[in-house]
Structure formats: structure tokens, C-alpha cells
Amino acid sequence: MGVGFYVTAILLAVATAVTACPPSDRAALLAFRAALHEPYLGIFDTWTGTDCCHNWYGVSCDPETRRVADINLRGESEDPIFEKAHRTGFMTGSISPAVCQLDRLSSLTIADWKGISGPIPRCITSLPFLRILDLIGNRITGAIPASIGMLRDLTVLNVADNIITGPIPLSIVNLGRLMHLDLRNNKISGQLPSQLGRLRMLSRALLSGNQITGKIPISIANIYRLSDLDLSRNRISGQIPDIFVRMPVLSTLNLDGNMIAGQIPPSLLKSGVSILNLSRNGLEGMIPDEFGPRSYFTVIDLSYNKLSGPIPHSISVASYIGHLDLAHNQLCGPIPSGAPFDHLDASSFVYNSCLCGKPLKSC
Ligand SMILES: *[C@@H]1O[C@H](CO)[C@@H](O)[C@H](O)[C@H]1NC(C)=O
């Protein structure tokens, strides 16, 4: 046999060793699968054979190292497997800590399976390359791991629509790359970390529908990339800090359904915010007469507060006001005519002390 044979044999051996997924990654995936039960679609039927990088549904590997890099299991998707079954996904069971043995994992998405319960494994915070953790739409309980701040590469943290309790871990402020934080609709309690402003890369902070107490931290003003802040339907108290005018790209500010008191900061009406919902709080005093040509609101909802005095004249100077809701306050006086008032109906003005004029009764 010539040299050529040996060379070919060695190349073949090397190629096989490089393409198959490591047995330890395969074993971790099988242990992860064993803790889940997916009765309708059979997605785990594809998890067979020795090469977990090849055709295992929702699993992908780094092409060079052949280590498992992504687990992407979505219960609501347009994948043919769902269309064939004519249904969305449903899965029970829990997320096995075995997933933490996949120490090259960069994204872990287990979304919208509706029935997965149990906690987020605490060991998840030891995955050094994790960038995306998306567990939206399950029945996950327990707290966000206290050491979440160890995930220095994390850009997306989405655990919305679960049953998560406990506080927002203080360590979260160490997630210097975090861009998208979605904790909506859980049972998270405690206060917002006062150092939240250290999340310099954050562009969306969605925390509505929890049991968060305390004040809005003024450090938020430092998050100059923040475009969407949703703190609605919590138990936030204190006043609206006068910081939002300093935030260059903030366009949506939802603080509705809290226990916020005091007055509306005048500068807020001249800021870049275009969707503003302050409904259902304890705001009082007058609506500041500070609208200007820069004021552009697709939505401004101030309903269900204790605002008094007249509707400010400057509102007609605003460049645009789409939906305006002032109902259920203590406002008084004539409703101005002209834009934006000509396209609003009575429901925007009802239940006030003595507003009058079109579209209400004449004065
Ligand atoms: C503002 O928030 C209230 C209370 O959460 C909600 O009912 C209302 O629909 C919101 N307004 C708009 C215009 O979305």
C-alpha cells in the first residue's frame, strides 16, 4: 500500500472527527429532551443519530468547532412541521440543567410552548458565550437567577409571559451589552435597580404587568439608546422624574396603571416621546401649557388621573396629536376648537368637572 492510502485514511479520520458533534454535547441534548414532553408535532423525533449537528430540529452548531451553538425551539412558527399539524406548539416538562453542559451555547430560545414549567436553571449564568435567552410564553416559575449579570455577552433577555416571581436581580446592571429586556406579564416584585442606567446598550425595556414597586430610577436618563420604556401596570410610586426630555431616541413611554403622583413634568410635552400613556395613576395639577411645534404625539392618554384646570391652549401648536384621552379627570373649561380637537369624540373628554363645547354639550 502506498503513501496515498495512509494520507487518505488520515484525512477521512480527521474529517469524521471534525464533522460529528461531540458525544458530550449529544448527551446533554438528550438529557435536555428527556425533561420535556412534546405530544403533537414530534419535533424531537428528529433528534436521532450520532451527529447532533445534522438535522436535529432546532439545533445548530458552530461549523468549525461542531459544538452546539444554538437551540431554537419556537412553539409558534411558520415551519412546515406546524402547518402539517394545523396547530401551534404545546410542550410540558421543564428546562433541564443539562443544558448548562453545552458550554458553547450562544442562543437558547424555548418560546411559546405554553406548558413548560419549573424554574430557569440557575447554572445558565455559567454559559460564557450566551447572547440570547428567550423563554417567552411558557409557565416558568421561580426567580430570575441572581447571578444573571455574569452573562457579559447577553444582548436579549426575554422571559415575558411566564409566572416568574422574586425581584429583578441587582446584578442585571452588569449586562453591558443588553439591548432588549422583556420581563412583561410575570409576578416580578421589588424595586427597579437604582443603577439601571448602567445598561448603556439597552433600547427596549419592557417590564409591564408585574408587581414592581418604588420609584423610577433617574439613572435611566443615561441610557441614551433607549427608545421604548414600558413600566405600565405595576405598583410604581413617586413622581415622574424630569429626565425624559434628555433622552434622544425615547419614543414610547408607558407608565399607565401605577401609583404615580405629582405633576406632569412640563418638558415631557416637548420631548421626543410620541406615544405617552400616563393613564390610571394619581397625577394632579394642571396639564402643563408647554406643547410646542416639536410636540408630536400619535397617542397621549392622560385619562383616569386627578388633573385639574383647563385644557392648555398650546396644544393647538403641537405639530400632531393623534389619539388624545383626557377622560376621568377634574378638568374644566371650554374644549378648544380646531386641530386636534375636530377629530376626537366625546369619550376623550367625558367624566371631568366641567369641560364643555364640541364634542360635549355647548358651554
Ligand atoms: C393606556 O393605558 C390604559 C391602562 O393600562 C389602557 O387601558 C389604555 O388602553 C392605554 N391607552 C392607549 C391609547 O393605548
TrEMBL record:
<protein>
    <recommendedName>
        <fullName>Leucine-rich repeat-containing N-terminal plant-type domain-containing protein</fullName>
    </recommendedName>
</protein>
<dbReference type="Pfam" id="PF08263">
    <property type="entry name" value="LRRNT_2"/>
</dbReference>
<keyword id="KW-0677">Repeat</keyword>
<dbReference type="InterPro" id="IPR053211">
    <property type="entry name" value="DNA_repair-toleration"/>
</dbReference>
<feature type="domain" description="Leucine-rich repeat-containing N-terminal plant-type">
    <location>
        <begin position="23"/>
        <end position="62"/>
    </location>
</feature>
<dbReference type="InterPro" id="IPR013210">
    <property type="entry name" value="LRR_N_plant-typ"/>
</dbReference>
<keyword id="KW-0732">Signal</keyword>
<feature type="signal peptide">
    <location>
        <begin position="1"/>
        <end position="20"/>
    </location>
</feature>
<dbReference type="InterPro" id="IPR032675">
    <property type="entry name" value="LRR_dom_sf"/>
</dbReference>
<dbReference type="Pfam" id="PF00560">
    <property type="entry name" value="LRR_1"/>
</dbReference>
<keyword id="KW-0433">Leucine-rich repeat</keyword>
<dbReference type="InterPro" id="IPR001611">
    <property type="entry name" value="Leu-rich_rpt"/>
</dbReference>
